[in-house]
């Protein structure tokens, strides 16, 4: 089973992308963790360390997929 982490900041673009992830990823093949920075800002540095430049973003293994554009990580850090 592949591990995937979906990072987002809670903006409308991010929330739409979260619903898409929940609906489209095959839960029997993918272990999806959702990280909402508004609820857990301590994970921002983790996201940056794996290559997340903007949110929403999906990380599968070492691959980072930036989905649409909700906010830059700089915007996320500055709240």
UniProtKB/TrEMBL annotation:
Entries under Gene3D superfamilies matching the protein: Glutaredoxin
Name of one Pfam family that matches: Thioredoxin_3
Positions of the Thioredoxin-like fold domain: 1-66
Record's signal peptide: none
Family matches, as SUPFAM superfamilies: Thioredoxin-like
InterPro entries reported for this sequence: Thioredoxin-like_fold, Thioredoxin-like_sf
Top-level division of the source organism's lineage: Bacteria
Protein name in the entry: Thioredoxin family protein
């Amino acid at each position: 089973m592949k591990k995937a982490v979906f990072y987002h900041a809670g903006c409308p673009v991010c929330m739409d992308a979260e619903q898409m992830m929940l609906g489209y990823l095959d839960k029997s093949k993918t272990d999806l963790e959702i990280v909402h920075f508004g609820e857990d800002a301590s994970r921002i540095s983790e996201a940056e360390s794996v290559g997340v430049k903007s949110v929403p973003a999906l990380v599968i293994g070492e691959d980072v997929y930036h989905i649409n554009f909700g906010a830059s990580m700089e915007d996320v850090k500055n709240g």
